[in-house]
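Dear support,

I submitted the protein below through the web form. The confirmation email said the job was done, but the results page showed an empty box. After a refresh the structure appeared. I'm attaching both so you can tell me whether what I see now is the final result or a partial one.
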Amino acid sequence: MTTLQLNAQELVDLPNKDHDLDIKWPTPEREYHSTIWDNPVVSNVSQPQMQVFRPDPAIANGSSIIICPGGGMYALSIDSEGRDVARWLAKRGVTAFVLKYRLVPTGEDATQDLMTDGAEVIPKAKKLLPLAVEDGLNALRHVRAESEAYGIDPSRVGLMGFSAGGAVTMGVSYAASAETRPDFLIPVYAWMNVVEEQEPPTNPPPIFVACASDDPLMLAPASVKIYQQWLKAGVPAELHMYAQGGHGFGMKPQGLPSDQWIDRLGEWMTAQGLMEK
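What the results page shows now:
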């Protein structure tokens, strides 16, 4: 079992077995503002870690969500698809964990490397994905094992992911055991290009799916397919497909209906009984 590192940011280290994939990170982990994405990002994660966002005990409802930011497996959009989401959830009584999963090794500017790697992006992302999925599985193990310390219900642990983080989320759902099965799933414009196509797992958890029809990476059809598969499996499933929103909208306001996707998530969680104490 991992040890809680309770410092000012309340960070938690997770195991990082390498699966003999011969992946090395010569560049240290770095957090910086990407001028290409106009976003704070994290790159070169070799040690998976979670940052914990706890709600006020007076409003804590026992539910929790592990958040996997996106970034093409090269970087993490750490605020718009991570910390800002966690703060929104914590204000509504949900304990949130922002997962820094392992990433493709890059140079100093991962977003620049993502732009220039071209045809190599998907092969590199596919090679790294098993490590990121293992990080997601270990995050679920940890949160459940430490549920009493976090003041959460171990049967109300959800997994959310954006873009590449959505690929991690769906990869975890396919690989999960009874111990690591998320209790609910939230793939947001999931990048399914790097995930081996599969049927839903046995006993799939309830799911909330969001995406935009005008996603320039053409991710809308995969989101619709996930929804249809879960619907066919007979579990609670909800899909929000916005006409406009593009890719990577996260918590960035654009003056579009897609800005309210997280409010729809809150409504869905309420309907599922996940906002009740």
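Response: this is the final, complete result; the empty box was a page-load delay. Residues 9-17+30-271 form a domain with the Rossmann fold fold (CATH 3.40.50.1820).
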